[in-house]
Amino acid sequence: MKNQTGTREWADSNVNFITGCTNDCKYCFAKAMAVRDKRTTPEDWKTEKVREHSLNKSLGKKAGTIMFPSSHDITPQHLPQALQMLKKLLSAGNEVLIVTKPHLECVKALCSELGNYKNQIIFRFTIGSADSTVLKFWEPNAPSFEERLGSLKLAFTEGYKTSVSCEPLLDDNIGAVVAAVTPYVTDSIWIGKANRLRAQLKLNGHSDASTTDRANELLACQSDENILALWEKDKGNPLIRWKDSIQKVLAKVEHFAITN
Ligand code: SF4
Questions:
Q1: What is the CATH number of the domain that holds 27?
Q2: How much distance in Å is there from the Cα of 188 to the middle of ligand 1?
Q3: Does residue 1 sit within a domain?
């Protein structure tokens, strides 16, 4: 892979078929880009709109791993269509990375309907905090921590390859997520900072004082010093992979050590 940042750290290409996402995360990058480009409004984003052209497009075999989805989620509202897309991708022989804030209902259906393609799939469940009140604040309509953990256990028990994304980190206790998910992860646990948080909150219509305070708290948790301490603590964990945002901090510290 040429560009080792963002989703390209994980996959060679992305497939999506919806504009909008009912989870309506405050920090959502896809929403911010859609608002900036006037393809949606901050209020409209939570109404999912299927792009029929994308849904009905034929999908052949592509080189490398395909991430599905990357700019929306797999939610109960459009589960049948998500399954339709996945079956098209998988029956063409593609390797698919399924990235989602997992709704248990959706994961049950995916596990039961995609069993024939188990070897072509890796699940990556996003869990940025083990505290459901924190998740509720940042990701208002996404599943609770307990539901996400239950989904991970299910996919693991059903024999699928599993991984977790702790990006964005949503509090200063990611160790609680790592400890809870480790028994059910076969592949990796990715850790990454909250990127471009202030700019995205602004575009997404969250400039109120309480969100700004919470954002400032979160960014303070992700100071270079704290990120370095997190890395020191977990650097020996073979499951953990550090996203580009953390690699940048490490490179900065290394450069500082060499030049001083
Ligand atoms: S789940 Fe993903 S696409 Fe949906 S609102 Fe949250 S960050 Fe955006």
A1: 3.80.30.10
A2: 21
A3: no
pLDDT tens digits, one per residue of 59-81 = 999 999 999 999 999 999 999 99
Token code pair at residue 60: 């052949």
Ligand 1 contact, 31 CB (< 6 A): yes
Residue 136 belongs to what domain range? Answer: 6-259
Q: Is residue 53 assigned to a domain?
A: yes
Cα-to-centroid distance, 30 and ligand 1 (Å): 7
pLDDT of residue 252: 85
In 3D, which of 84, 56, 53, 52 has the Cα closest to residue 68? 84
The dihedral formed by the CA atoms of 138, 143, 148 and 151, expressed in degrees to the nearest 10: -160
Q: Which atom of ligand 1 is nearest to the CA of 72?
A: 3
**What is the residue with the minimal CA distance to atom 2 of ligand 1?**
72
What is the 254 CA–ligand 1 centroid distance (Å)? 33
CA of 25 to the centre of ligand 1 (A): 5
Give pLDDT tens digits for 147-188.
999 999 999 999 999 999 999 999 999 999 999 999 999 999
Q: What are phi and psi of 40, to 5 degrees?
A: -155, 180
In a domain, 70, yes or no: yes
The model's pTM is: 0.95
